[in-house]
Each structure stands twice: as C-alpha cells, then as structure tokens.
Design a protein that fits this description.
about 200 residues; alpha+beta; Jelly Rolls; six-stranded antiparallel beta sheet; three-stranded antiparallel beta sheet; 5 helices; about 20% helix; globular; disordered C terminus
C-alpha cells in the first residue's frame, strides 16, 4: 500500500469484528442504511464528515482512528505528501496527527470545493472543544443556529457540545485546519487490559 493511502473499509470491518456487530446493527446505531455500510467497507464510496462522526459515535471511538496507520509514538513529524486522506463529494479530509500518549487533540486539514460542506444539513455534537483556522477562501460555520463567516486568517473556537456544521456556499475553494479536542484522553488502563484489540485504545467519551 502506498504512503498516505489506507483502507477505511478495512478499519471499519475490523472494528465491527472486534465488537461482534453486524452491518445492520451498525447501520441502525449510526443512522445509516446497511447498503451504505457495505459500500464504505468495500471502499466503493467515501463517507462525509458527518457520516464519519456518526460511525465514530456509534462505535464509541474518536474520529481520528479512521486516519491512523502506525503505532503511537512520542513525536509526530508528518511530511506534506504522506498524510492519509479521504476525498468525498467536493471535500478532502487529511489526517494531520495520529495518537500520542494522552493526546487530546485531533488535527485535520479540510479542503472544501465550492458548494461543499460537512455533510448536508446534519449537525454534529460531541464532547470537548473545536478549533478552526481558515487558511484560504471563506466558509460558513453554523453553531447553535447562528452563522459565523470565517475568512482566511480567522479563528473560531467553541464548545463542541453545541450543534454545528460547516459549509462553503461560495464560488472559490476553501481550506481550513480543524482541531478536535477530547478531554481525558488517557488510554493507559485500556491499553493494558486490551492489548490484543488495538482499536479499543481509541475508545472515547
């Protein structure tokens, strides 16, 4: 497998296998169709951010797990062309970090083509905080019913328990750094108890 490439479907199948969950059960938990789960597992479709978040919530893991390829380390140095990425419906999601011991931050680089968004009008709610830095273009962030216009150089930080989504309703490409923060991220006790099930170390909340 080439650097920067990976199989999200394989990771999803592994998670289901570890938890002994059928495709139908996962679909029900994530609010998706069984066919959608099947397509994702065969890598025949790329899920939106909202779909990834729903799958992560249903499996009780952090979303960054889908992007991780290597064992935890103490220092991360990720070269520009080696970031794992997912492309879906006008959006590219690049994983910018894996997992350090006690890491609470999950950084992503998001590229939004004109009219693309985080997954329709479905809003996301999760623990911790969310940090957004707009690198290029401009985007709209909808938080708890209010629209915030984020332009290049702007920063937005908010409590992620508030319903939110992002979108690019404009005519030019936008890029943003998105950092998700999950409190109490220490996994040491779980690592010791479930060393034969690596994904369990990423259980969140």
């Amino acid at each position: 497998m080439a650097k920067g490439s990976f199989s999200l479907g394989e990771k999803l199948r592994q998670l289901r296998s570890e938890r002994n969950i059928s495709q139908r059960d996962l679909a029900r938990l994530a609010g998706l169709s069984p066919n959608a789960i099947s397509l994702i597992e065969r890598d025949e479709t790329s899920p939106s951010v909202a779909t990834l978040q729903n799958l992560a919530n249903a499996l009780n893991i952090r979303m960054s797990y889908f992007f991780e390829e290597e064992a935890p380390t103490s220092i991360l140095h990720i070269k520009s062309g080696e970031r794992p990425k997912i492309e879906s419906e006008g959006m590219t999601i690049e994983g910018m970090g894996k997992i350090l011991p006690d890491q609470e931050l999950e950084p992503f680089l998001i590229t939004l083509e004109p009219k693309a968004g985080s997954g329709g009008e479905r809003q996301v709610v999760h623990t911790g905080h969310e940090f957004v830095y707009c690198l290029q273009g401009k985007i709209e962030y909808v938080i708890d019913g209010k629209i915030y216009l984020i332009e290049a150089g702007d920063i937005l930080i908010f409590e992620a328990a508030l319903p939110h989504l992002w979108r690019n309703p404009f005519d030019s490409q936008a890029k943003l750094i998105l950092v998700l923060q999950t409190p109490n991220a220490s996994r040491e006790p779980i690592q010791r108890h479930f060393s034969s099930h690596p994904s369990v170390t990423h259980i969140g909340r």
